[in-house]
Amino acid sequence: MKDSERPIGIFDSGLGGLTVFKSLRALLPGENLVYFGDTARVPYGTKSAQAVIAFSKEITAFLLERRIKLLVVACNTASSLALDEIRKLSPVPVLGVILPGVEAALKAVPAGGRVLVTGTSATVNSRAYSKALAAAGARVKVLEKACPLFVPLVEEGWCSKPVAAIVAREYLAPFRGRKVDALILGCTHYPLLKKVIAAVMGPRTRIVDSARVTAACAKADLERRGLLNRGRKGSSEFIVSDAPERFSGLALRLLGIKTGKVAVKRF
Length: 267
Ligand code: DGL
What we know:
Elements: E1 8-12, H1 18-27, E2 33-37, H2 49-65, E3 70-73, H3 76-89, E4 94-95, H4 98-108, E5 114-119, H5 121-126, H6 128-135, E6 141-146, H7 150-155, H8 162-172, E7 182-186, H9 194-201, E8 206-208, H10 211-224, E9 236-240, H11 244-255, E10 263-264
Parallel strand pairs: 1-2, 1-3, 2-9, 3-4, 5-6, 5-7, 7-8, 9-10
The chain binds D-glutamic acid (DGL).
């Protein structure tokens, strides 16, 4: 196998990373993609940093065995808490979703504007976005809100049920009158709730998602290293740690992704 034909590894705690997978597939049609969803241990966002680091290292080692040429951590929680540890383990470049999210947000917010970061409790408590926005020299006011019930709603496939709108209102209505220019969907599950989130925030607030910028960063990395696969249609492989049929059904229903047979890897 030529080096350019080696797959890109992508992982998340569950379904959410499929929002990033979809952007990668659209931008890089020739690439072979292998996606791992840790469905046995989702959610990550309510767990300790030690647990998220341990899970992320196990998955990284597993994907490295498949000779990946790039690892995309399609999970904000793992990107916030475990990126350094993953990088120590990985001989191939590792791309997280926080910096792409910041890049996308900066395009949407004027200097002096306001950004609302939403994410899991672990991501918000890590302050990864605030730190990355500050490091990028962003002159913006950052507000943060953990929305821990969003992930179980998505994993249950309830993105357009009335309960999703009720929960979104409970978390976000207090920010509605606070002149928020952009809301960062700081969890890869949240783009699946974009409609209900946008409805609560109103038209003033741009809803920012890191998926497209992450895919563009992946493409730039592969181009830089001469590893872009310009071949025919790339393959897509899906592996989960539990309940493969459920994953497959929700991937189709929520994202229109036909996974084919989903393999299982238990740790
Ligand atoms: N989708 C992940 C994230 O971006 C993880 C959510 C979770 O498992 O709590 O944070």
